[in-house]
Please model this.
Amino acid sequence: MIDWFLTYYPELLKGILTTLELLIGSLLVGFIVALMLASLHHTGKKYFTYPINTFVFFIRSTPLLVQLFLIYYGAAQFSLIRDSFLWPFLKEPFICALIALGVNSAAYTTVVLKGAMRAVPKGEIEAAKALGFSPFAILRHIILPRTFILIWPSYTNEMVLILKATALASTITLLDMMGITRQLIAKTYDTLTGLLAVGLLYVILTTLIVGLCHLVGKRFKRIGW
Amino acid sequence: MLQGYLPQLLEGALLTLQLASGALVAGLLLTLIGAFLLDSRYKILSYTTFGFTTLIRGLPELLVLFTVYFGGEIVLYHVFQHPIEVSNYWAGVLALGIIFGAYGAQVFQQALHSIPHGQTEAAHALGLNTWQCYCLIILPQAWRHALPSLGNLTLILLKDTALVSLIGLTDLMSRAQAAASQTQKPFTFYFAVAIIYLVLTSIVEILLHQADRRANRHIRKVQ
Amino acid sequence: MMKQWVKLGFSLLVLLSMNVTAYAAKTIHFATEATYAPLVYLDKDGNISGFEAEVVQALCATLKDTTCALNHQGWDSLIPSLKLGKIDAIFGGLAITEERKNQVAFTKPLYPNSIGYIVSNAKPISFDEAGLKDKVVGVQLGTTMEHYFHEKYPDVEVKAYASLQEALLDIQTGRVDTILGDTPVLLAWMKGKPNNQYQIIELPEDQLPFFGPGNAIAVNKKNTALLNELNTAIDTIKHSGDLAKISAKYLLNADAKE
Model:
């Protein structure tokens, strides 16, 4: 297996870069969208909560593979999309994977953020209102900082889940770690070595992510939240 | 609307359900065994099990599926010294079951820990042996704690069945792919698949909700 | 009472999950990726049909006391499954190549290669180094076509798809500019499209040797018995004219050059 690695590591490296780009991109997109959705949901207004709940329900009830194929192959079916300004973006498997994973992450993170926002002590919000904070200022200074700390362990889990989900992007021809490995396996017919090698890479990445998040979590504790 | 492909899609959905049932049975068995091993007195057993479950949890499901599919026979051959055929159906069941079991074992272990030790002591005091204590006293109580997480894992299992289309099983997803290629209407068919999965997961969620209510029926509600 | 329900539910789950197939006296397990009309494909009822499927059935008919089971699985799992002994033979647009000969044993060729590019008439391409330079070419992962591009035009962007059908979806949307594949398959796909939207440019004769002597059936290297059986059967159906009949039905020229 060592010589397999040594022979093919340049191509694997390209794959690792793509995987990391997809991971970070999806997490960013997902978090920003989730933040907006959770904040809107927090207002309690029905015209926010109903569509948001429907959105979360749809995403959580369908497999990611189906969502990926819907965006990559499905969207391309319509000439309306192909002739629009969106096409240069939707043409690329990376963008389609980014959208699918970002939306997926947004749905799950919204639920986590919703719960955490509710857990912020009511007393602090009332005190802030008494002091004349605007709703937006309350969100920014009181609710969100507390929320971030509360969700940190769940979000670490979410990061690992998205990393594992990036492997599915190989099914829409994206050459991430899994995609490159499948190509190399098709070339060398050495299935198990390839699978073991890429498995090792995923384990290393997962360990790094969990380790880094653990350190950040300890930092939060030190600040005194 | 589906151009006559609906029967094929439903056949695929049937295979998906069969696969999910088999994987659920395998997964629950592995969960119980795994939870038992994790709490074992023998450190080597508990550490190995912990290492194995953490490893599986850190790998993409796609990778576990491929490895079980391609590597399963090799491992079985080495273990049993006799070629054993593993069809892609059973590879799918096994792979999904292992994934379920890896998460389930750790979840169930936590549920077991939430049972006060006094229960075990009382059971022993009443003359029950370890096996009876486990089955009659501990398991039913731990079940209530574990149900939400295990339920969540079941839903994930149902969705992960879509992956077996990548090892050539003619499940729902695979039928949709064939139909999409033949009609050049991928959106129609993948959307139909999404709706079918929506219906299936909703049914499972309702069942889980009922199971949850039943498991908690003896708990006094706070007024 | 509750325990009864649990037991019932559990046994129902186990029963539901049983997916057992019956086996005949002696069965040869053939496998292919049946997404390759008209060579192999799944018909409306989910059975494997097509030119090569019929050829395999004809071969089986000449073998005594044998049934042939045809199964569908993913293309890139075919050779690994064969090596592991999960299946006995693979077929379906499988070209004989030197690398594959290292992994598996091939029967005599069933029919020669017929390879070409499919390209949209709205955006024609000249198929040489200069013309292909900034184009995207679609191929199926793990095929001789993919290998051809890596060897001959290493600087051209190649997208490898798990199945040729996915590549064909993408040529419609312009994600790939052309696809290199087996001409019968490309022709069959073109039939469903409005006239003059696409055309097929056959690969020049001098390029064909790269792709080997033709398409054949592959068996495990250790299975010399099956290999000999199949080779004898191939000779039988060639001499009896059955092979010619089936290939005429599918409008393919199957006079393989020995």
